[in-house]
Amino acid sequence: MSGTDDAPAERPRVFGTADSVYVRIVRLTLIEKGVDHELVPVDPFAPEGVPPAYRARHPFGRIPAFEHDGFRLFEAGAIARYVDEAFKGPALLPEGVKARARANQIISIADSYAYRPMVWGVYVERVEKPAQGEPSDEARLAAALAEADVCLAALAALMEGGPFLAGPRLSLADLHLAPMISYFQQAPEGAARLAAHPGLAQWWARMSARPSLRQLGLCAG
């Protein structure tokens, strides 16, 4: 599924914060497609809350939201798939039915099982809280690491030795998981668990060297 030849030229807008995993997923997709875009700051965790006008873009008050040529979307997965199909550039989902299903399965695993333990359970507890002078919740951290172990094992098995998560070429699956791993591996326990899966560790080294990830400050260190 390659991009169309007649996509409107209006610069897309992404609404959210630069450090959000799901905003990063959308922005990585845009960058990999070679699409210039604008990040419009919206912080759902601001003391005053979500701006009331933003609810017209996202009735649930989450980020990101997206607009292109008057067309509005919310939910990162839907936005990323739209970007892949609406713009020229390398296709970011495999052509084969089975390979495409595998990519979508990995995206679902990342959303349903990896995001919360890896980011909120491991990164926040081990990295962000101590940086703010708060104690880590060790019980929560241990539970999150156990969940992360299951996710990493499943992902490593699904890779089947490929250079990318869903086959020989970069896909939306890679761009979906990468921002989560970027946070997860900043915790010593996360880095150790990633290293225990050589295929995933090599995948992350490859991903973190990509210009798109470096542009957004997602690196291996």
What keywords describe this structure?
221 residues, alpha+beta, Glutaredoxin, Glutathione S-transferase Yfyf (Class Pi), Chain A, domain 2, four-stranded mixed β-sheet, 53% helix, globular
Describe the structure.
The chain is of the alpha+beta class. It folds into two domains: 13-86, Glutaredoxin (3-Layer(aba) Sandwich), CATH 3.40.30; 97-210, Glutathione S-transferase Yfyf (Class Pi), Chain A, domain 2, CATH 1.20.1050. Strands 2-1-3-4 form a four-stranded mixed β-sheet, covered by helices on one side. The two termini are 34 Å apart. The chain has eight helices and four strands; from the N terminus they run βαβββααααααα.
SSE map:
Layout (H helix, E strand, L loop, with lengths): L12 E4 L4 H12 L5 E4 L23 E4 L2 E4 L1 H11 L10 H35 L6 H22 L12 H13 L3 H8 L2 H11 L2 H5 L6
Parallel strand pairs: 1-2
Antiparallel strand pairs: 1-3, 3-4
Helix pairs in contact: 1-2, 1-5, 3-4, 3-5, 4-6
The parts where pLDDT drops under 50 for at least 5 residues are 1-8
Q: What is the H/E order?
A: EHEEEHHHHHHH
CATH class of the largest domain: Mainly Alpha
Percent helix range = 40-55%
Number of domains: 2
Oligomer: single chain
Most strands sheet: 4 strands, mixed
What Rg is obtained from the alpha carbons, in whole angstroms?
17 Å
CATH architecture descriptor name of the largest domain: Up-down Bundle
Q: What's the β-strand tally? A: 4
* SS element count, helices: 8
Shape category? globular
> Which secondary-structure class do the elements indicate?
alpha+beta
The spatial strand order of the largest sheet comes to 2-1-3-4
Note the gap between the termini.
34 Å
CATH topology of the largest domain: Glutathione S-transferase Yfyf (Class Pi), Chain A, domain 2
User: What fraction strand?
Assistant: 5-15%
User: What integer is the average pLDDT?
Assistant: 94
